[in-house]
From TrEMBL:
Residues 1-31 are annotated as: Disordered. Residues 11-24 have a biased composition (Polar residues). InterPro entries: FA58C, Galactose-bd-like_sf. SMART domains: FA58C. PANTHER family: EGF-LIKE REPEAT AND DISCOIDIN I-LIKE DOMAIN-CONTAINING PROTEIN 3, MULTICOPPER OXIDASE-RELATED. Residues 1-145 form the F5/8 type C domain. It comes from Nematostella vectensis. The lineage of its organism: Eukaryota, Metazoa, Cnidaria, Anthozoa, Hexacorallia. This is F5/8 type C domain-containing protein.
Length: 145
């Protein structure tokens, strides 16, 4: 995402805190302003990435908001091949949100935290779903195949 191959229009979100925190700011190492941040009233926030076609994903990376003490401390991953039918990433079993794998994310604004997936996933669409945060569930993200 950081190299620009995924256009801004391919990033979407459940909400934004304000006009300075759009989904397009959710790229790892983005320093042109704040990161993506959901609205404080969004109970189930997500940052969605459309890869344009299905890709194998094996590593996730996250950072917090570079301009404020706001970052995601834990998140879940949802994925889809068609943008309609979604599954939670988990190490095995059924597709229940309560069984979804919870990833540990950030403890500050800028450190890059990488998650190596126990099983690779094939998807066109990925949703980072913050479930715990400090300040606000802000994110900058990257996907690696």
């Amino acid at each position: 995402m950081g190299d620009g191959r995924i256009p801004d229009g391919s990033l979407a979100s459940s909400s934004t805190k304000d006009g300075n925190t759009p989904a397009s700011n959710g790229r790892l190492r983005y320093t042109g302003g704040q990161s993506w941040c959901p609205s404080s009233g969004d109970a189930t926030p997500y940052l969605e990435i459309d890869l344009g076609s299905s890709h194998i994903i094996c590593v996730l990376a996250t950072q917090g908001n570079p301009q404020a003490d706001e970052w995601t401390t834990q998140f879940k991953i949802e994925f889809s091949v068609n943008g309609t039918s979604w599954q939670y990433f988990q190490s095995g079993g059924t597709d229940k949100a309560s069984l979804a794998l919870v990833f540990t994310a950030n403890s500050d604004r800028g450190t890059i935290v990488r998650q190596f997936l126990s099983n690779v996933l094939l998807a066109q669409y990925i949703r980072f779903r913050p479930v715990a945060w400090s300040g606000l569930g802000c994110l900058r993200t990257e996907l690696f195949g």
